[in-house]
Amino acid sequence: MGEGENVTAGFRDARPASAQSVTISDVAEAAGVSRQTVSNVLNAPDRVRAETRERVSRVIAELGYHPNHMARSLRASSPRMIGCRILPVHAETVAAIQDRFLHALAEAGQECDHHVLLFTAADAAAETERCTTLWRAGAVSGVVLYDIAPDDARVSRLTAVGVPFTAFGRTATSTEQYSWADVDNAAGTAAAIDHLVAAGHRRIGFLGWPEGSSVGDARARGWLTAMDRHGLLAGSHRLDVRGADTTSSGTRLMAELLDRPGPPTAVVAATDTLAVGALHAVRDRGFIPGRDIAVVGFDDSPAATALGLTSVRQPIEEVGRLVMAEMLRLTGRTSGADGESPAESLHRVLTPELVVRASSAPHKDSPLSDLDAHPLRP
C-alpha cells in the first residue's frame, strides 16, 4: 500500500457511521493535509500538486464525503463576505472597542473587494451555530471571532466543522492550532505603571474585571508584574479591586480605595469606562485628577481625549488589517502554486502605546514628594 492508502485504511475503521457526518476536517486528517488543501482539491484542483490531489480525492471517495455543492456555488457567485458577531453595548460604557475593530476590518476588506457581514447571537454557542450555518449556506467565506475567553469553545467547534476563522484575541492554550492577532494587554498596563512610578507615585491601585477574561486577566497581570518589578507590590497588595466594566462600578471601586487607610495616589483602570467612573469618584471627593490623584485608563476612547484622561491605545487598525489578510489566506484568495498556504498561520502580538494627558500629570502646586508623606485631602 502507498502512504495515502495506509492513512485512509487506518482512518476507515473509526470513520463516522454516516457519510453525512463526515466533515472536511475528517478528510484533511485522513489525507494528512490542511483543510484549505481539501477545499482547493474540490474547488480549484489546478492549484494542487497532482500527487496530493490524487491522495485527497482517494480519501474523499473512501470516506464517502459529500461537499455541499449548493454552498460551493453560492460562495463562488456571491459577494466575498466575512462574518462577525456584533456584541451588545452596555449603557454604561464609554469605550466601544469592537466598533473600532469592525470599522478597521471593513476598511481592510474594502481594499481587497471583501465585505463584513454582521450578525447577532445570544451567546457563544449560538454564535458557533450561526457561523456554521452562514458558511455552509455560502453566505460567508469565513468568520472572525472577537472577545476570546481563556478556554473559548468556539475555537474547537469551528475547527471541527471546518469553518475558516481568525480571532482577535487568543486562548490560554493551544494557540498554535488556529490563526489570531492580539494586543499585549499586560505590556500596556505595565507601561502605565512605569509612567506613574517615574512621576513619583508609590501607592498605585488597580481597577479591574473579575477573573476569567483573557483581556482582563492580562491587564491585571501587567499591574502585578510591574508593581513587583518596582518593589511596590507589598505596599499595594490591598489596592487591587475588581468589578463590572461600567462607569458606576468604577466610581464605587475608586471610592472604596479612597476610604482605605493609605489610599493610592494613582490608579490604573482596565478600561476607560472604569477610569471615567474613577474620575467621578475623585471629583466627588473634591480632589483634582492629576494634581491630587492620577488616573490612567485603557483603550484610548474618544472619552479619554475629551476628559484629558491618560490611556493606553490599542493598534486596532493594524489588527483589522492583519485579520482580514489572514482571512484571505485561509479562504484561498491568496495561495501558493501547489494549493498549500503560502505563509504560516497568523500568530501576532502587537504592542499598545501609552498616551499621556492631564489626568496623570502632576500639578505644579502639588509636589509629588508630598503625595506619599501625607494622606490625600480635598
Topology (SSEs and partners):
Elements: H1 3-12, H2 24-31, H3 35-43, H4 50-63, H5 69-77, E1 81-85, H6 97-110, E2 115-119, H7 124-136, E3 142-146, H8 153-161, E4 165-168, E5 179-183, H9 185-198, E6 204-208, H10 214-229, E7 240-242, H11 247-258, E8 266-269, H12 272-284, E9 294-298, H13 302-307, E10 310-313, H14 316-330, E11 347-350, E12 353-355
Parallel strand pairs: 1-2, 1-3, 3-4, 4-5, 5-11, 6-7, 6-8, 8-9, 9-10
Antiparallel strand pairs: 10-12
Helix pairs in contact: 1-4, 2-3, 2-4, 6-14, 7-8, 9-10, 11-12
Region (Disordered): 357-378
InterPro entries: HTH_LacI, LacI/GalR-like_sensor, Lambda_DNA-bd_dom_sf, Peripla_BP_I
Protein name: LacI family DNA-binding transcriptional regulator
Rg is 25 Å
| Low-pLDDT residue spans | 1-19, 335-342, 363-378
| Strand order in the largest sheet | 2-1-3-4-5-11
Q: Please identify the structural class as seen in this structure.
A: alpha/beta
Q: How many individual β-strands?
A: 12
> Class of the largest domain, according to the CATH hierarchy?
Alpha Beta
- Into how many domains do the coordinates divide? 3
Question: On the 0-100 scale, what is the average pLDDT?
Answer: 85
Question: What does this protein structure show overall?
Answer:
The chain has three domains: 3-67, Orthogonal Bundle (434 Repressor (Amino-terminal Domain)); 77-177 and 316-350, Rossmann fold (3-Layer(aba) Sandwich); 185-314 and 355-370, Response regulator (Rossmann fold, 3-Layer(aba) Sandwich). Helix content is 43%, strand content 14%. It has 14 helices and twelve strands. It has helices spanning 3-12, 24-31, 35-43, 50-63, 69-77, 97-110, 124-136, 153-161, 185-198, 214-229, 247-258, 272-284, 302-307, 316-330; strands at residues 81-85, 115-119, 142-146, 165-168, 179-183, 204-208, 240-242, 266-269, 294-298, 310-313, 347-350, 353-355. The chain has a six-stranded parallel β-sheet with strand order 2-1-3-4-5-11, with helices on both faces. The chain is elongated, with a radius of gyration of 25 Å.
